[in-house]
Structures are given as C-alpha cells and as structure tokens.
C-alpha cells in the first residue's frame, strides 16, 4: 500500500532529530520542520489505513502537540532546554512507533 515511502521519510527525520541536543533558534527551526513533516506523514498514513494508524494519529500526535505547546509557553532558558529535550524525545518516540507499525503491516 505504499508504506515504504512514508517509512523512509520517517527514518530520515529520525536521523535528523537525533543530532538535536541544545535549544537554540537553529534547533527550534529544525524540530519544527520535523514536526510538520511527521504530522503530514501520519495524516497520510491514517487516511490510507485508519485501522492501523488512527490511534497513533489521535494519541501520539496529540502528545507531541502538547509538548510543543509547553515548549512554546516556557519563558526561561533553562526551562526551555529541558522542555526542548522532552519534546524531542516524545516526537522521536512517536516516529519510532509509526515506523514499527509500517514494518508490521508489510
């Protein structure tokens, strides 16, 4: 059903996110781009196969959105660094789950 293409996108995004360790404007721009691509990809997968991807779309994407919002609302630099790393972890976990589901469908 064409999952290899979407899985490939997610694997590339996973590799990109691994290198992010410090909160700064550059890292924020990169993780925002990764989030947008992940969001788009999970939406495509949900539309192709709601039975397997709807839960990931509803639960994992929502969790990532919450951490993104928390990071955006944080005011102090130390607080942002910690929230940035947590946002990165949650986004990475969501991508890994999605990759695993695409592997099991094949």
Q: SSE string, helix = H, strand = E?
A: HHHH
Strand segment tally = 0
Overall geometry? elongated
Question: What's the average pLDDT?
Answer: 93
First-residue to last-residue Cα separation: 9 Å
Helix content: over 70%
Low-pLDDT runs of 5+ residues are: none
Strand count, sense and barrel status of the largest sheet are:
none
Structural class: mainly alpha
Please indicate the percent range of residues in DSSP E strands (runs of 2 or more).
under 5%
Description:
- The protein is mainly alpha-helical.
- Helices cover about 90% and strands about 0% of the residues.
In short:
The chain is mainly alpha-helical. It is 88% helix and 0% strand.
Tell me the layout of helices and strands.
Layout: H1 3-18, H2 25-48, H3 50-73, H4 77-105
Helix pairs in contact: 1-2, 1-4, 2-3, 2-4, 3-4
Characteristic terms for this protein:
elongated, single chain, 4 helices, 106 residues
